Amino acid sequence: MDNPQSKSETASFGFQDVPAAEKAGMVRAVFDSVAPQYDLMNDLMSGGVHRIWKSVLLDRINPQPGTKLLDLAGGTGDVAIGFLDRAGARAARGRPAAEATICDINHEMLKAGVSRKDAQHHAENLTRTCSDAQNLSFPDESFDFYTIVFGIRNVTDKSAALAEAHRVLKPGGRFFCLEFSHAITDGFQKIYDTYSFNVIPKLGELVANDRASYQYLVESIRKFPSQEEFKHQIQQVGFQRVAYENLSGGIAAIHSGWKF
């Protein structure tokens, strides 16, 4: 009799356990499907609150001229563009313009961001590249900041992705992850789960004609580790002064760490 597949060879895809080697392709298919309506669906699902969360993230980063950002799972580019906007509003004081690289494993998500009007005036300082978070194509110590926004939960091997984040950051560089998390009270979590499982897939069906992809996205949120558990994972790859900040009662959280 064949041995059953070991847990180490599987990965969660929402509430399913699937062969680890297949997860990346399954996630890619999800985002191929949702890419054209991705920004609109984010606004509808969160009532626009995701924009506030991303603004708080950029507040914490405090972009400056002369710095370089790698935005993993950067999709259509709203975080990278916000980074460049804020850095460009600072006095240069002899420093060059900031630079941002949007990196995503999904070609369709990158394509969906090319036509954004707010990206046009950053053409010289904004690049897009398709690469796997677990095996980045960038040299060691290339970036001052690494961000991953609503993307880490879709990665098959989170520890490998975190290790790559540590590798490509310069000494003194900072890691930031904005991700859906766990509400700080059981009552609030139940209310949020009721909304998530009953409303979001239905919105996906009505707006994006894709209920299944949004059902996966909701399930992947619930499978993500707690704030403390994820903090420990970040520490395990070498980041120091790791901390997290709950947003909207823990519906989302910003985790951050330093490379020294």
Topology:
Blueprint: E1 10-13, E2 16-19, H1 20-34, H2 38-46, H3 49-61, E3 68-72, H4 78-88, E4 99-104, H5 107-114, E5 126-130, E6 143-149, H6 158-168, E7 169-180, H7 186-207, H8 211-223, H9 227-236, E8 240-247, E9 252-258
Parallel strand pairs: 3-4, 3-6, 4-5, 6-7
Antiparallel strand pairs: 1-2, 7-9, 8-9
Helix pairs in contact: 1-8, 3-4, 7-8
Question: What does it look like?
Answer:
- There is one protein chain.
- This protein has 260 residues and is an alpha/beta fold.
- It has one domain: Rossmann fold.
- The protein contains nine helices and nine strands.
- It has helices at residues 20-34, 38-46, 49-61, 78-88, 107-114, 158-168, 186-207, 211-223, 227-236; strands spanning 10-13, 16-19, 68-72, 99-104, 126-130, 143-149, 169-180, 240-247, 252-258.
- A seven-stranded mixed β-sheet has the order 5-4-3-6-7-9-8, sandwiched between helices. A two-stranded antiparallel sheet has the order 1-2.
- Strand 1 and strand 2 form a beta hairpin.
- Helix 3 crosses helix 4 and helix 7 packs antiparallel against helix 8 (211-223).
- The longest helix is centred in the last third of the chain and has 22 residues, at 186-207.
- It is globular.
